[in-house]
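Input record (Table S2, row 375):
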Amino acid sequence: MPTSDPFSALVGAAEAAARAPDEGAELDRHGAFPEAAVARLRAARLLAAPLPPDLGGAGLCGSDPAAGRALCRVLTAVGRGSLPLGRLYEGHVNALALVLRYGDPEAQERLAMDVRDGHLFGVWNTEPEPGGLALDGDGNLSGAKIYASGAGSVTRPLVTARLGDGRRQMLVVLLEPGARADLSDWRAQGMRATATGRVDFGGLTMRDAVAVGAVDDYLRPPFFLAGAWRFLAVQLGGIEAVAEAHRAHLAATRRGGDPHQQARLGRALIAVETCRLLVARASALAVAETEDPERIVAYVNLARAAVEQAGLDVLALAQRSVGLAGFHEDHPLERLSRDLAVYLRQPAPDAALTGAAAFACAADSPVHRLWPEEA
Ligand SMILES: Cc1cc2nc3c(=O)[nH]c(=O)nc-3n(C[C@H](O)[C@H](O)[C@H](O)COP(=O)(O)OP(=O)(O)OC[C@H]3O[C@@H](n4cnc5c(N)ncnc54)[C@H](O)[C@@H]3O)c2cc1C
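Output record (flavin-adenine dinucleotide complex):
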């Protein structure tokens, strides 16, 4: 139904742009990149949507609670349609959120122009050890990033570069399409269509980059760490897609009346709904930013641990209910399972859980007051 609410319209557009049932199977090969789907996001103005209206966007990254709820739904809708596309779009949004938070007005204007021109952004932080990205005192870049999604297609990556004193500076590097990307190492079980690879920055200088923020802004709490809620929103979409493949299989095979099958599907539905509630609350706390940074990060970390476990549970339940058919290449569950299993791997999951527990132990409030009732 057409709606005048710009945020609801964006959610609908995201759903439509990501939904292309045959595309996922076609792109399930090493080195692939969802060019057509990114073009649909661009055409639906979803690449520019995170920018504020005065920079040509829809304000999707704003601190307005309605914007936060809409961004959450947009990310989940894209992830439900395609986890690889969701990963790429989440990286784009993440980069713009950092630019809008820390960039000076000149950097924001300059980079917003690139967004409006259709460039895809991303955040490339992971690096080889040794051999990570460094910036010397003369403005020369050297070294590489690894696990860089969209390598060769993301033409405006936000990277962290180590300075001589060990601190880190955020930069958006201005790359040409296809340049410097080495996808040969990305032979993962799933998430093949993310073109995740190694990018070498040797020979580039600050003339090829725009500095964003002050030194060490990247990990300044709570912004980046709390921003993990955005990948949780995408993961939620992937978890919903697996649960839907489970449900559809039971309906199609008329096995849904069996009490064992019903119990497994019921547990999967609880896991999905638990994720939805946790991700909504994590996003509300992170977007409002009215609590102490440690309190916000602890809640997002708790949500990280819960969503990871729920994703693993939903995978196991679906695979047991569908059985061997779900491991055949022509069954929808097969690729969805591989994509979700890979995308659930995020940095330092143990530290997310123990960090939340450490916060609770050190807090001077009882468990029921650790987080506000309404977020
Ligand atoms: C599809 C995909 C796309 C990605 N795209 C990007 C991208 O565009 N940009 C980017 O920067 N990164 C990207 N990444 C990388 C991502 O951000 C993480 O770095 C990566 O997924 C971490 O994986 P890991 O399991 O090796 O993590 P780890 O953090 O190494 O965790 C592995 C295990 O070791 C434990 N562990 C971690 N640290 C320690 C320690 N010090 N001592 C003992 N145990 C420890 C963890 O708790 C966990 O159990 C991508 C990842 C995926 C899957």
